Amino acid sequence: MDRAWTSPEEALARAAELVDAPPQELLERTSQVLRGLVPHTAAGQLSELSAYAPQQTAGTDRALAARITGRELGELSVRLRAGAPWQGEAVLGGERRRVLVVGSTSRGTGSALLALADVGETPLPAPVLRTVQRVWDLVTVYAYRLAAEGYPERTALSGAAAAARAQLVAELTDLHAAALGGVLTALRSSSLDDATARRVAVERAVDALAQLRQRPYWDGVWSEEGADDAFQRLVRELRPLFRHGPVRLSLRSPGTDRALPSDVAHAARAAVRAAVLAMREQEGLARMHVGWWVEEDELCAAVRDDGPGRLGRGALLSRHHAERVAALGGGVAVDAVPDWGTTVRVTLPLALAASAAEQPLAGLHPRELEVLEQLALGRRNREIAGELHISESTVKFHVTNILGKLGVSSRGEAAALARGTRPGP
Q: Signal sequence span per UniProt (predicted)?
């Protein structure tokens, strides 16, 4: 292919190739179109237009593309001036390479950067740079229109992934709060000398760090959990808060291995943790009771104390926790009796609010959603492993689970379902 588009017909043909590309293939198509003008091995994009994948890569060198990071692309943005592509040496894919970087100049499209790797030592002619600029402007305008119109394949996948990630962040935030509470309990304890208090606090911190570093744990708990196992996870988080402290904690396990949907188990643990953390700060508290039980079609969780009985619902559960329970069709009741104590009761239905057909991605946990995102981008197992920093065998494991949960038989069907479309016959 020539290094220049010598006729209007050729330029229009290239433009048609771009606007005919499915959204998930747009960067790959852009790289193919530009390769005739600017030979390169890989392309990286950093854009505000994609909520679920702001950083994307493509190119003939898949290994290099998989190593390109968002941080590297972000650092390249300081090289740019509006409408002036930059060619030079920079780190991309972990190594110094000759790159061409171009930013969008189209109004309303936000920040959008394109970097091409291994473009050669010879400075590119001004007409070629202007053409690359116009091509990237066209691509960003097209992507902006797709995003503004709520293209189904982006909307469904972005919404499901964002919700799952927000839930995971909230879970980790609560665990951090419980871990810090355990450390402070040891340091404040009047029954421990200074050396013992420091030792216990360090042990609490080490245990918390070890738990947070257990990635297999975080991958595994986002499917289903037995009721007793789910409650025991909560117990392991709560006990350090009361050990060596003046408040006695009593516990009531649900006494059943009945499977709980992961979102229900996590919401129950989060609500109970929040209530316990708020209640234990009261003066004059001597005892607290935490119990779960499973009725025919709902999980019930209760926290009861013998404190002043003056805490309101807003002080016990944040807006986030209340909304999380409500989103699952559950409810929260608070009974506070002055001088007798406070009881918080959380109920969560075990039946799904919507069928899998209505919300096909609802049954996937965050790691599976991340793998599905990569499938929707057309990436192979090795590329997915590199992008998510996991092994290929783990990718295969997740792909198998995804196919089973979505009720499909191929990667293509799973990707199409994630994009809100079905493949043709």
A: none
| Annotated domain spans of the chain | 8-149, 163-349, 366-418
pLDDT of residue 222: 46
Q: Which fold has domain 366-418?
A: Arc Repressor Mutant, subunit A (1.10.10)
CATH number 3.40.50.720 is the correct assignment for the domain at 163-349:
no
Beta bridge partners of 252: 291
* CB atoms inside a 10 Å sphere around CB 141: 17
User: Domain 8-149 is in which class?
Assistant: alpha beta
pLDDT in tens, 92-125: 998 999 999 998 887 655 578 899 999 988 999 9
- pLDDT tens sequence across 246-298: 889 999 999 988 888 877 888 899 899 889 988 988 888 899 999 999 987 89
pTM over 0.85? The answer is: no
